[in-house]
Amino acid sequence: MSAASIVSQPRDYPLIVEKDVRIPLRDGTSICADVFRPDGGSERFPVIMNIGPYQKDKVWVPPPDVEEKPNSYMNWEAANPTWWCPRGYALLRVDSRGSGKSPGQSDPISHQEALDAYDCVEWVARQSRCSGNVGTLGVSYHALFQWRLAGLQPPSLKAIIPWEGWADTYRDVAFHGGIAGRFIFDWYINNTAIHLLGKPRNYNPHVFNNNLAWRYLRNDLDSEFWRMCSARLDKIKVPLYSVGNWGGFSMHLRGNTEGFMGAASKHKKLRIHTGTHFGPFHSEEGRLDQLRFMDHWLKGIDTGIMDEPPVKLEIRTGGSFKPYAFRFENEWPLARTQWIRMYLRVDREPSNNADAVEGELVATPPKTTGKLTYPAGPSSRPGKTPRGVSFETPPMQDDTEVTGPIVLNLWVSSTSEDMDIFATIRNIGPDGQDVCEIGQRADPVPCVTKGWLRASRRKLDPERSLPYRPYHAHDGYQWLKPGEIVECQVEIWPTSMVFKKGHKLRLDIAPMDGVGTLYFTHFHVDYNAGAESTIYAGGDKESYLLLPVIPAK
Length: 553
Fold this sequence. Notes:
Blueprint: E1 15-24, E2 30-38, E3 45-52, H1 81-84, E4 90-95, H2 111-125, E5 130-139, H3 141-151, E6 157-163, H4 169-174, E7 175-176, E8 179-180, H5 183-196, H6 200-203, H7 212-218, H8 224-228, E9 240-245, H9 253-262, E10 268-273, H10 284-299, E11 311-314, E12 326-329, E13 338-346, E14 359-362, E15 370-375, E16 389-392, E17 400-414, E18 420-428, E19 437-438, E20 444-445, E21 449-454, E22 486-499, E23 504-510, E24 532-537, E25 544-550
Parallel strand pairs: 3-4, 3-5, 5-6, 6-9, 9-10, 10-11, 14-16
Antiparallel strand pairs: 1-2, 2-4, 7-8, 11-12, 13-14, 13-25, 15-24, 16-23, 17-22, 17-24, 17-25, 18-21, 18-23, 19-20
């Protein structure tokens, strides 16, 4: 029997739409929501809820290649009522406080928003047409709120599916390795403009007033400020299906793998796919996974999904813009991983040529120490672009699968008090060209994954660090002295790639954003200007990549 045959089947329910429903909150205020529910007479249905600032009334028209087709109720990154309601689910779509039609002080990605979501869950669970079981489902913003909500443990919340959503607001998006990322600030400006220059200001004149950019940049070290707007994974006990995208190596993916590993849930699953940011969510295959999980936990239907191995991964073999085959695994990272060190060996002086390779990644540590010095900012060597340096493996003798988290252990020094390390992993074909993968916006990306670290933030949290995933404390600065050599462990985000026979794995180490960055750029501050950075490899300065190589079963 196929999985599709043991899930809720669509029925010819009339659709009831209740607009601008006021939900009372614990502080005496209220926020605004839309309810979509099947008309089943006295029948009671489970509810799928989401809350966010993207305006519940704003219709999203998907691109032609998305499998779910447009209708007048589709909303960005949220579940589609015309698909879910016929299958016996009601949807609750909420404008978060101070956005869309909801009054109040805007505070996106916050503890307050999580408290409001808790109140919405318990409110809808008490309604006469609700079965009392509530789940959450959605992409990106509609995923990340779920991590914070679940940590509060609302009694009526029975299952969550955070689909491509970060968990740690500091490490996953605002400060990669302690380096300020631009995306969240571009997001803030864009959403402020949409609210103030669009319809919401007509009925909500103080909408989306939150000064997020100043507050984030002011809190550039990790603190309770960031913990309050991030997941408390040890408090999450609800059944969990964490869903990531290999292409999300600059924002969401880390949250999905860390969420799966760290959540205290007894019943949890991990899925990582490829494709655009919204395509897999609206695909038939993706919706079937969602439905099987929700049917199991919200309706008590034995769909078989919890009998399957807990980890489901698309294994990339390089260069396809169509989905790869999924493979089931029993854990993350994979128990059979061979953690292989590939050591950096310096062969030649840095070049201004973007295609140049300064060294090789080798299996045996070099006996003597080599070093490479390159400009950290554009003013240090006039006429030279601060591209950094690159290392490559020899051509692969066989197909080599790398699936899991990666670490770059690097010895460095600077003429400045600090140094930025941007690490990029690339797949180079036999023709010397990048093998591209599909990006989150359907663009070709010449990059496998990335990692970042500001050298003054190299301090590790020993209780949370793992051999294959360093966890940096980010609670203070360890400033560099000119010429002082220090060891840094750079967390490179998880990936999956089969480097085909004859291909090379390339490592770029740069002082700023490099190949494959696209719209996930970073701020480069004054310590880079006029400075030079040096990396060391070999001898008593073993610099290496720790790679998760997966032997064939």
